[in-house]
Specification:
Blueprint: H1 5-25, E1 39-45, E2 48-55, H2 58-72, E3 76-82
Antiparallel strand pairs: 1-2, 1-3
């Protein structure tokens, strides 16, 4: 059975919360790595642009864009772009 978009969004939010709690209670030593390219989820409302979320891959970025479009409504323009420094 296919999950509804709302349930999928709730699961993603729950995973992020659990990951944050885990990282807080079990900090890892700092390591030097190159950061993998990700995607910024952008929103524009009344001419003001802002980054509203971040995704690690394009599939997740597409999913989040659709969720934010549903949540924010017609007044917002929501899209993703490659992450900028």
């Amino acid at each position: 059975m296919k999950k509804s978009p709302v349930k999928m969004a709730a699961e993603i939010a729950g995973q992020r919360y659990n990951e944050a709690i885990e990282a807080h209670h079990n900090p890892q030593p700092a390591r030097v790595t190159t950061k993998a390219a990700g995607f910024d989820i952008m929103g524009i409302f009344m001419g003001n642009a802002e980054v509203i979320d971040h995704a690690d891959n394009e599939k997740t970025a597409d999913y989040l864009v659709n969720e934010y479009r549903l949540a924010y409504g017609r007044g917002w323009r929501v899209y993703h772009r490659p992450e900028r420094d």
